[in-house]
Amino acid sequence: MRILVLRGGALGDLVVTLPALALLRRRWPAARLELAGNPVAGRLALDARLADVLHSQHEGRWAALYGSTPLPPDFRTWLAGFDLVVTYWPDPTGELARHFPLHAGQRLVQGGAHPTWGPAAAFYCAPLAGLGLQPETLVCRLREPAVRSPVIALHPGSGSPRKNWPLDRWAALARWLRDVRQREVVVLAGEAEPTAGLDEIGPVRRELPLPQVLDLLATCRLFIGHDSGVSHLAAAAATPGLLLFGPTDPAIWAPPTPALRVIRRGLRLDQISLRDVQAQVDALLADQS
Questions:
Q1: Both 80 and 43 in a single domain?
Q2: Helix H or strand E segment including 26
Q3: Are 6 and 99 in contact (CB under 8 A)?
Q4: How far apart are CA 105 and CA 120, in angstroms?
Q5: Is residue 71 part of a domain?
Q6: Helix or strand holding residue 218 (H, E)
């Protein structure tokens, strides 16, 4: 059995699709499962043994799936070697789907690229119901719970500035955690986060490899972040915490775990006050005492 899964997007898009990969792996444990997607985030699927081979979504050969001409012979032969193709790539006009099946025994399962209902992980599992597959969990655990240190991890960024709480409030929150609640903080930052101002919040761990981010989160007391891929990693590491939401819908994008609470005051993040966040953090710390 050979399976090809086409999944685009960034870190969060990949993490919310891991439960669907887990369904395929559980149903066909001996299958060779190949994933075409984000070349960095996709490593998580390899490390979790939910995929055997990773192909970058940026490879030029994929463009042929959207062309009007026949597939190049070598590419067509390679695609024909799969028994099942599961795609979450955009295909509004059916250009991709028209190429399949490439032989009588091949099956194509087509899901949406962008979730219209949530949780997102359930949305991406839903197309597999036609194969008789139903999820047992919507959070794929990538790290087992570890002994928690006193450290609180803060992630002030996301994939879009409009999803971010004002940086001065992050700095005020970090001062309160250190000076009033006597907690150590660490700041997680990726390539999308601005460099200016982060050092005022706390010691910065910038662009850590994803396995190291997971290891760090698995030992933190709490995580505080936004609608971001790192927040989904916190869920995958079973880290309790608080997520600040604004323009995006937490019913779709918040990890479906009670360990991560959500606070939302409107479509703008600046509508969430420092006191709002402090109250939620105090409640989370009290739950752990």
A1: yes
A2: helix 18-27
A3: no
A4: 30
A5: yes
A6: helix 210-219
CB atoms within 10 A of CB 228: 26
Backbone angles phi, psi at 17, to 5 degrees: -95, -10
Tell me if 32 sits within 8 A of 38, measured CB to CB: no
Q: How far apart are CA 159 and CA 50, in angstroms?
A: 25
Q: What is the pTM of this model?
A: 0.94
CATH number at residue 158: 3.40.50.2000
| Model pLDDT for residues 169-193, shown as the tens digit of each residue | 999 999 999 999 999 999 998 766 6
Note down the domain range covering 238. Answer: 152-288
For residues 127 and 166, state if they share a domain: no
Count the domains in the chain: 2
CA–CA distance, 84 with 88 (Å, rounded to integer): 13
Q: Which amino acid is at 161?
A: P
Tens digit of each residue's pLDDT (9 = 90 or more) over 95-111: 999 999 999 999 999 99
Residue 233 and residue 170 share a domain: yes
